[in-house]
Amino acid sequence: MLIKRKTGGPGRTFHQAVTIGETPKALDRRAFLRNSGLVAGGLAAAGSIQLGSVRKAQAAGASAIGPEVTIKKNICTHCSVGCTVTAEVVNGVWVGQEPSFSSPINRGTHCAKGAAIRELVSSDRRLKYPMKMVDGQWTRISWDQAIDEIGDKITGLRDKYGPDSVYWLGSAKFTNEAAYVLRKFGAFWGTNSVDHQARICHSTTVAGVANTWGYGAQTNSYNDIRNAKTMIILGGNPAEAHPVSLQHLLSGKEINRANMIVIDPRFTRTAAHATEYVRIRSGTDIPVVWGILWHVFQNGWEDKEFISQRVYAMDDVRKEVAKWNPEEVERVSGVPGEQLRRVAEKFAKEKPATLIWCMGATQHTVGTANVRALCILCLATGNVGKPGTGANIFRGHTNVQGATDLGLDVTSLPLYYGLVEGAWKHWARVWDVEYDWLQSRFDEVPAKGGRKARTRKESMELPGITSTRWFDGVNLPEEQVDQRTGIKAMMVFGHGGNTVTRLPEAVKGLTKLDLLVVADPHPTTFAALDARRDNTYLLPICTSLEMDGSRTASNRSLQWGEQIVKPAFESKNDYEVIYRLAAKLGFADKMFKNIKVVDAVPDAEDILREINRGGWSTGYCGQSPERLKAHMRNQAKFDLVTLRAPKDDPEVGGDYYGLPWPCWGKPELRHPGTHILYNTNLHIKDGGGTFRARFGTERNGVTLLAEDSFAKGSELTDGYPEFTMAVFKKLGWDKDLTAEEMATITKIGGANIDTVSWATDLSGGIQRVCLDHGVTPYGNGKARANAWNLPDPVPVHREPIYTPRPDLVAQYPTRPDERQLRMPNIGFSVQKAAVDRGIAKDFPIILTSGRLVEYEGGGEETRSNPWLAELQQDMFVEINTGDATDRGIKDGQFVWVSGPENNAKAKVKALVTDRVGKGVAFMPFHFSGWYQGDDMRKFYPHGTDPVVLGESSNNTTTYGFDPVTGMQETKCTLCQIRAV
Amino acid sequence: MRRTLTTFRTLVAAAILMAAFGASSGSFAQQTRDGLNPTGQNPTAESVNEDFLFKQDPKITGRISIPDGKAAHLIQPAGRDYRDFRERWLPWLSALAVLGAVALLGLFYFFRGRILMEPGPDTGRKILRFNGFERFAHWMTSSCFIILALSGLNYIFGKRLLMPLIGADAFGVVAQYAKFSHIYLAWPFMIGVALMLVLWLKDNIPNKIDIAWIKAFGGFIGNKHPSAGRFNAGQKMVFWMVIGFGTAMSVTGLMMIFPFALTDITGMQLMQVIHALIGIAFIAGILAHIYIGTLGMEGAYDAMGSGKVDLGWAKVHHDLWVEEEQAKNASGPQLGRHQVPAE
Amino acid sequence: MARMKFLCDADRCIECNACVTACKNEHEVPWGINRRRVVTLNDGKPGERSVSMACMHCTDAPCAAVCPVNCFYTTADAVVLHSKDICIGCGYCFYACPFGAPQYPKVGNFGSRGKMDKCTYCAGGPESDLSTIEYEKYGSNRLAEGKLPLCAEMCSTKALLAGDGEMIAQIYKQRVIKRGYGSGAWGWKTAYRETVAI
User: Fold this and answer.
1) pLDDT at res. B3
2) Residue B242 belongs to what domain range?
3) Count of domains in chain B?
4) Residue C55 contacts residue C119 (beta carbons within 8 Å)
5) Which of A755, B214, B296, C159 is positioned for an S-S bond with C9, CB 3.0–4.6 A?
6) How many whole angstroms separate alpha carbon A745 and alpha carbon A724?
7) B316/B318 Cα distance (integer angstroms)
């Protein structure tokens, strides 16, 4: 066993003798030793009768002097709060964790996962070497063999079926650099089917929020919630999912005596600390939000000035909201009107007020619409763009924000440039490759299934298949999948297999795949389902604690994590594996042209510099590795609430912690980052901003630009469009550009430099000049209450596919069947069939799902950690006391939870509790390793099985996808529960 | 003090009712029916506190995710009462019982002296009273008992008497061995008790003769020795004490060997209390048994020593048994010359 | 001289179990031994509160009183510690402890319950401070390094307070005054025969 050598001398004064109370046991250590004969001179004769487990103490005073301790800082991988992990390393071994008191985000604290994170690295249940399944048996192979064989196989598939036949799944636990490199790899390989966990957690948030006011991210920060006087937490249980955030929430609640309103179907650990709890029926978020707004509009509590200056088409919302009078809201959602009036009054009048949401809002067939409704609630009450307000969206993994930003998304290149030609050309310039070459990598698709043939360019600009549908992409008849063939190979980097709904269908898909590669610290559910005999590879990847790189927390702050220890066992980091694969496929030199590579390991700092060179659109340009490292060194200097360092600090003066994006201009410009988005009360150089003018300047004769609203110190005192050279020329600001900047712009624009914009100008000149004039590079627009490009421009209520209220389906049906993201979405037909077949009678209980504090995501990693696994040893279903009594179910006994599709059933333990209301059941989604009642432990490679296995909640989840992002429905389906 | 004792007594009484087969506590007594919809409530304002919960139950119990029922008890102030019992009362009670028994026996010996054999016509002839197996059962049980008693007393008096003498470290070792012996010798002890029950049950069924024997106080009152079968009423009392106390000690002991298997913390405390109280009573009782079987009565020891007793002594003390034995076999159970008693 | 205590502010505790795993991490506590745990009261109902509990290092500790081998001692900081060399694993301290703090490893068959293990307030044991043997038997000794117990230092919402009793009581009082509510210092009456009067 390793002992930590600590600073500070042994033996402090408190070991002097005292007597406390009347007991004769109040002894100090020395007196105790003396009495107990443990020091020299004790009764040696009897004492020498040694028992096995009784060991003699060493001579007092002999303390172990260990070797030198190095302190390393990295970021906890288990949620998006971004807690700093302080590691004590001795001789390359991580021996202990200390509180990270200097971090302004976690201030020394952790949750169960963060406090146990050391075990992740030293776990002996990790994948130790590359493996291959040969005729159903796992066999050890070398890295060279693995890369060789995988490379040959995917090349073969590419030749035969086209590049889209190989699906690339990345990870929200990637560093920014790894996410970027994998997206780039996808581009070089020739597919847009590169996705990651954001698809199944906050894709609808990103889509909904970005379509409202510009950027798809949390507007404020965890710390800023301390300023709020009212907070609504809707569809979120941060006490379990983001425990450290509760430190800020509860402090805010205490300091301001703030209202903390929890709106949730479940009385969660968060609700226990609320000042008001609102129980809703799952899937009725829009009726509830409109119900709140109904009171706001009815009483004139809306922020009229804010709406007129900064919001487009709020009147369209009024029309929809008018339908949601208290009676209708109560009929649909079950929430009494009087209560919502109270909530509305607090949110609108006791300001600043913030809205916090999580996957309870996003994981629905109406996810994007939910998010939009929530944004509109903020807009109507003027609760955006100020301290203590905003849409505080809590994301799930360490770097799910960063991985989304950096393009692990089937609809965009890195940093939300999209897939349009201009985006490809921008990145081709940054990557220093030919646009034509990139295009040549994509597939030509013949006419199929009544669809036209597709050119390479069209393929390049067509979004890929979402991760929620990958197995549909395998299973569905080929004419239904909008590419040359269905999916033939899955390349899974750091993504669980049990996190996507409809697991039985996924198992079918797995059996059909030509190739499955799982690159992960653990084998994951993908590898442990009894579905495959051959052509399955496991590549041991180190955790992100074993690699350098930046991570973007939910509040958009980037934090640099340094490698704590070298990758354990034979594991390699993501950079190296992607590099080796690229090398095998022959484009590594092209891909890593401007990135230093040492021994096949690309340099994280160099990758970040490349991101900086191309990341203008989202303000990922100012966060150089040097600046980020300086922040980690100077953590203690940042203010707890404003996250800002004192202006006079030589290294980080005036910066916001982690340079939250957008951090405009080149690093040398030293933009401080943007703590609160769209905050007009600050100069842009101090992190101020406006709503993004992303959707044009006017629509149907109504302006989309802000009116009489602008950021502090702006030279333009009204709305303005995003900045291009054309706009610059009109304003005469092109004169402010340096010759060097002009040269770069000219090179980019060629004959038509007018189109070069703030987002494509690689010199950073346009942004620099904008900052000097106090304007936001992306323009000053209005937020949209009506987002005309979305399926439901103004959110409308739609019943879940499997609803316990079939009587409401006729009035509030789900959207009609249509094709989205290369796949059919037949939600309407499924809903109709469910109603026609009377599913709600056979499956009368609403099944919802969520997180446990001890586990994360698919849970392989955390369930392999004994410190955590001990705390949750069984998969369970929460069932209401009344429902349990009706079924004769006792707390702790096994029950079958059955679902309406695939004859799905799951054997889990009953947790009888009033956390859930009558007719509602809840299952955590972290378990896997049991399948429909069978223990699958033997299918894991020897020694890599997690400590705790259990039925996956997705065994019983059902059909349902958001029309915008393909988000799955995990929060509202139906089930039946029976005692085993 | 009185209050805590009362509480503890109530606790004990309540626990007796449910402890034996471990009805675990009614911790979730006030479940809401049907899960009352908590919407509209202010969970902060309604938070529970210690006083409120203690009014519902003497220990505060909640929910915990680890599968360890005892961990779900948050606070059980009864631990203090248990401590009072163990530290304030038990040492005195034990000392009183053990020393009291010794003192009484001493007094008895002083006044009555050793009960001597009354010489008669059969003096010198032997009759087999306990065969080898019976004696094996007796000695296995009794030797275990002695060690159990000593190691048991060590739990109470070790730290008070032995520890100051030999120092804590040595005492720790002794106590560790004492604990091991207490736990491991409990098994042969329990087997022994069971064997004795099987062997001697039929001879220990109380009957009318016993009443006369008791009335005569076993011969102390009056001058005629009362009649007795194989076992007189006094011996029967010892038998039933051993069976009763032995069973009680076994049950409570087993529950301590497998703690919390059948009961919760309150039950465990109760087991401890019962085990200790019966234990000291048992020791006191057995001291009397030892006295009468050895020092107190001439000739008695032979029954468990060689197994053969003096026929004259037997006729005095167990006249009916001797008659019975002799009736069974013309030659009686007395040993012929060719027979060797099984040792 | 400091009088060390724990105080769990149940109005802050969210049952995140960081205290539990921090303890496991710091002392390499094996599976089945829970030096600290979090219990949720009134689960799922308004009024629900969670409380993190470990050895409270009682004044006049009942465990020490009932120990048949006197293996307990109290440090000058009022931390209740014990010697595993002397402990015989009898289990009495568990019966006496109002807080369920003592834990016993199962070392073999029946009756071979191992030596008691419990929260040391991150203060090690009777062996010399910061020695290897101390770490192996009792875990690390943060107090000797001038640090407080890791469970409290890492508590996600700063609900669990550790330190001098007067000081943490003061912090708690200020919180209650500031926010206007408080469910009290859980266990203090039982452990220290006092409450935090507001």
Assistant:
1) 46
2) 81-328
3) 1
4) yes
5) C159
6) 11
7) 6
Give the CB-side neighbour count of residue A253, counting CA atoms within 13 A.
24
How does pLDDT run across A540-552, given as a tens digit for each residue? 999 999 999 999 9
Residues of chain C below pLDDT 50:
111
Q: Give the chain B residue whose CA is nearest to the CA of A261.
A: B42
Can you name the residues that pair with C82 across neighbouring β-strands?
C72
Those chains having 3 or more beta-carbon pairs within 8 angstroms of chain A are B, C
Is B156 within the bounds of a domain? yes
pLDDT at B259: 87
Q: Which two tokens stand for residue A970?
A: 């995990």
| Residue B107, domain CATH | 1.20.950.20
CA distance A219 to A225: 11
Cβ-nearest to A25 among C73, C131, C133:
C73
Q: Please determine, for residue A382, whether its predicted confidence score (pLDDT) is greater than 80.
A: yes
Spatial separation of the C-alpha atoms in residues C26 and C122, rounded to whole Å = 9
* Residues A918 and A882 sit within 8 Å (Cβ to Cβ): yes
Opening angle at CA A645, ends A641 and A647, nearest 5: 130
Provide DSSP, A129-196: S-EEEETTEEEE--HHHHHHHHHHHHHHHHHHH-GGGEEEE--TTS-HHHHHHHHHHHHHHT-S-EE-
The answer to whether C4 and C162 are in contact (CB under 8 A) is yes
| Any domain includes B13 | no
Contact C76 A53 (CB under 8 A): no
Interface contact A60, partner B, CB < 8 A: no
Residue A45 has pLDDT above 60, yes or no: no
Contacts of C107 in chain A (CB under 8 A): 53
- Cβ–Cβ gap C96/B265 under 8 Å: no
C158–chain A nearest CA distance, Å: 7
A943-to-A123, A138, A382, A568 alpha-carbon distances in Å: 11, 12, 55, 15
Neighbours of C55 (CB within 10 A): 26
Helix, strand, or coil (residue A53): coil
A835 C-beta neighbours (distance < 10 Å), count: 21
Q: What is the pTM of this model?
A: 0.90
Which residues of chain A lie closer than 8 angstroms to B169, CB-CB?
Answer: 36-38, 42-43, 46-47
Interface of C with A in 16-55 (CB under 8 A): 16-22, 24-26, 28, 31-32, 34, 40, 43-46, 48-50
Instruction: Please indicate whether residue A934 or residue B122 has the higher confidence score (pLDDT).
Output: A934
Helix axes A337-349, A326-333, angle to 10 degrees: 110
In this predicted model, what pLDDT tens digit does every residue of A318-366 receive, in sequence order?
999 999 999 999 999 999 999 999 999 999 999 999 999 999 999 999 9
Task: Determine if the peptide bond prior to A946 is cis (ω within 30°).
Answer: no
- How do residues A6-35 score in pLDDT, each as one tens digit? 433 333 323 322 223 333 334 454 455 444
Run of H or E residues at A921? strand A920-924
Distances (CA, A) of A409 to A206, A730, A966, B49: 11, 36, 12, 49
- Answer whether residue B332 shows pLDDT above 50: no
Strands A702-703 and A783-784: unpaired
Residue A227 phi/psi, 5° resolution? Answer: -85, -15
Domains in chain C: ranges and CATH = 2-55+100-105+117-189 (3.30.70.20)
Residue A74 scores a pLDDT above 70:
yes
- Is the pLDDT assigned to residue A870 strictly greater than 70? yes
pLDDT of residue B1: 41
Is residue B5 domain-resident?
Answer: no
Looking at the domain assignment, is residue B300 inside a domain? Answer: yes
Tens of pLDDT, residue by residue over B97-107, are: 999 999 999 99
Interatomic CA distance for residues C49 and C168, integer angstroms:
20
> For all residues of chain B together, what is the average pLDDT?
82
